[in-house]
Amino acid sequence: MAAYKGQYRFSFGPxxxxxxxxxxxxxxxxxxxxxxxIKLARKLQFELVQxxxxxxxxxxxxxxxxxxxxxxxxxxxxxxxxxxxxEFVAPRLWFAPETIDGAYTNNDPKCRRYAITRTKTAIxxxxxxxxxxxxxxxxxxxxxxxxxxxxxIQVLQxxxxxxxxxxxxxxxxxxxxxxPNEPVDSAIISTIGHAVGLxxxxxxxxxxxxxxxxxxxxxxxxxxxxxxGYALAHNKLWSVHLNDQGGLKFDQDKTFGSYNLRRAFNxxxxxxxxxxxxxxxxxxxxxxxxxxxxxxxxWKHLAYSRERFLFLLEKVATLDRKIExxxxxxxxxxxxxxxxxxxxxxxxxx
Length: 350
Ligand code: XLS
Ligand code: MG
Prior knowledge:
Blueprint: E1 10-12, H1 34-43, E2 48-52, H2 53-56, H3 65-82, E3 85-90, H4 109-129, E4 133-137, E5 142-143, H5 151-168, E6 173-177, E7 186-187, H6 192-201, E8 208-213, H7 214-219, H8 224-233, E9 237-241, H9 261-273, E10 283-284, H10 300-317, H11 321-329, H12 333-344
Parallel strand pairs: 1-2, 1-10, 2-3, 4-6, 6-8, 8-9
Antiparallel strand pairs: 5-7
Helix pairs in contact: 1-3, 3-4, 4-5, 8-9, 9-10, 11-12
The protein binds D-xylose and magnesium ion (MG).
């Protein structure tokens, strides 16, 4: 395979090997212990694992800080034993009763304090796992009806929360993962533009970046490769969640490239051509296998997302730039469209 500019390391989170429950039906597969999922990551040639805080320490709200530290060290040893690293830790601020009406933007100050404390614990866990990255998917920072919260106040509450974390740990980096909706009707930090803008409002913008997820860009009616390009222009694309999404519906987290190969090609292209991965950034996945998938095949969506990324990397490397540049100079974009599609379909262009 041709050598590429970017040397890519891949990651996924244990929630990507799920039991298949959905809002309309119960689990269809047995749960898999974390230790087995970590071993599978190695077997599938992934280099890093993503974590929610309670993936590392289940039921952490009921545990003392010393117990939490003990269990986090155990997971760190599991990673070391497999030669794996932790990519990031994401506080799960959407399960606890205190987060029913949001975390940092909850209308109840006690619940906001819970969210701050829970995130500091996630930072402590990240330090034990040896990663500087905290991902904030702001799941419930939004509204079900507009009048329940004041948007301007919500933005400032999130900014203040991030400033608290930047001060709590001078080494930590915060990655904001925007999503326009689900579970809320309308999220307050809904696109990469909102997330990048928010990063500049914080006390230390050099430690606040973004994570682009394919499906979340599509749910916002945007193109994921454009969102990646925008974040790269700001030097703030510090992680990605590659997957796919079939239009405006529930977040499908489909296998990368499963719905739209050209959209996937353009994501790989923008990452490869603009230096993503050279400062340790990972090709992170956030993919869910179909509910129909049998347990014996509970690894295919991960392996095939990674495989498709590498196939498309070859397509990026073998694209004849001379023809592309000439068609752009001639402003013959119908011809350019044909050229790209011939390339993707493996057809000789003439
Ligand atoms: C959900 C989010 C979630 C985060 C990690 O839609 O993508 O998976 O990435 O908590
Ligand atoms: Mg995600």
